## 1
Amino acid sequence: MDYYQWRKKNRRRKRNLQTKKPLNYALKLLKYRVRFEDELRERLKKQGFADEEVESTINTLKKQGYLDDEKAAYLFALDEMRLKLFGPRVVRMKLKSLGVDEEIIERAIEKALEEIDFHEELKRLKGRFKDRWELRDYLYRRGFDPSLIEEILNKIDGGEE
């Protein structure tokens, strides 16, 4: 084995040792996107780390501010509502399926609803539909509450006149 092969082999071994640590693996996962506590716990356990190591890693990340379910839920709700135009009902179901606490979900959705202006988004969308009923059905399927749909449609219709 020549020097270059030996060096390559040692680099690979060193890299494997570094990624075997649960904290390094968790930080690697968090580098790509914000994750929820339960989601990260499952990923670490699936990787084969012991329960004590997983809990210690999660506590460390919480203390350092890398892991915050409330912030993650808010960012998730904001993205789903703003970019994918999902309503609160669908966002609530998605967050529940990710294992987020009910109180955190409600606060995140309220905060996201305060920040988003659906009226401008839906004004552009209105041209795709023949009439008001089609748009109403579309919004209901996307997870908007009937009262919110009526409020939005009234503002859109009021703004055109």
## 2
Amino acid sequence: MSDRRWQVCGPSGLARVDWDGEVAIYHRGSGDTHLLDPLAAELLRALEQQPRSDADLVSLLSELVSPEPARPPQALVETILGELKRLNIIEQVEP
């Protein structure tokens, strides 16, 4: 995994509703609503605070998941980032 940096797309922000272990995200910039699992929601919450590197997000996920998940934390982060990017919720920060 490279050490890319990620941030939430656009300045318009996100609105969220948490319930029953899932999180609905409304992206004001696009007008789209998405349902996220708790791990994706926590990584997104961290990215809302400031841009983060892959390594930062792997470390955060490792703290959140106990015991060790079936998939390595790096693989989980890669999957989550790919999905959030596909949904145009996050973008890679240019160096």
## 3
Amino acid sequence: MSRFLTPSDADHISDFLSAPRLKTFLDLTRSGLREDAIELHQATMSLGVAIMAVTGLIEVSLRNAACRRFDMMFERADWLMNPPQGLQWQKLESSSIKRAQNQARRAAYSKMTGPQKTALDEQAFPNGKPMSLPHEDVASRRQATIHVADSQIIAQLTMHFWKRLFSDQYEAMLWKRGLRKIFPNKGLSRADVASQLEVIYEARNRLAHHEPVYGSRLDAVLEAISFVSNYLGNRDPDVVSPFAKLIMPQRDILSGQVAIMRSTFDRLTPSR
């Protein structure tokens, strides 16, 4: 029995995790014991935390590298909200930008004092604020008047936005105009980069919804992490880049969690 859990412990933990969630791991076990399923679950959760730490640094670094490149490419800092000639955001990206702007406005509004919020009414309600308007609508109208800097909007954009910039829809608009310099190895194509970023995005999305990453999914995300570590801002993959050094501590922790998870799977699941 794993982790010295009593049958009573297993009953309570099963309730916490839910039967459908635990069944995923129960079906993997050799023994069919809930205690072993719980241990497998915990191993994947610890692994997920380590993956999120590494891929979180990848997301932040990719975002900042892209922003610096766009500043240079377009010779202006307002390319996000005021796209220059030759750049047209696709529908998905336009929606992401609008959503990020609203989130940035909500964040700014939440930091205001009561009097500061009330002061927005002059712009939000030029003809006077309706007495019966629900509080949520008042807040929404007020927030719409708040100016937020592009940098605040950029901070709200997710990995989905940044990985989309490497899609074929932006090959001419972005990749060929200079985005490729983020991954300066001349042997890499846009599709090479896009496919690896897609793996990282999918893993982060699964983990954000508390879904496990193991087996072939784990192998794929580890390969994608190695790819970005080798090539982000680096021409020669045989040279340890500054970015690789940045994420080295988190990758070391991840390697340890991978070893623990694989050992746990080998011990508790049937031989393959």
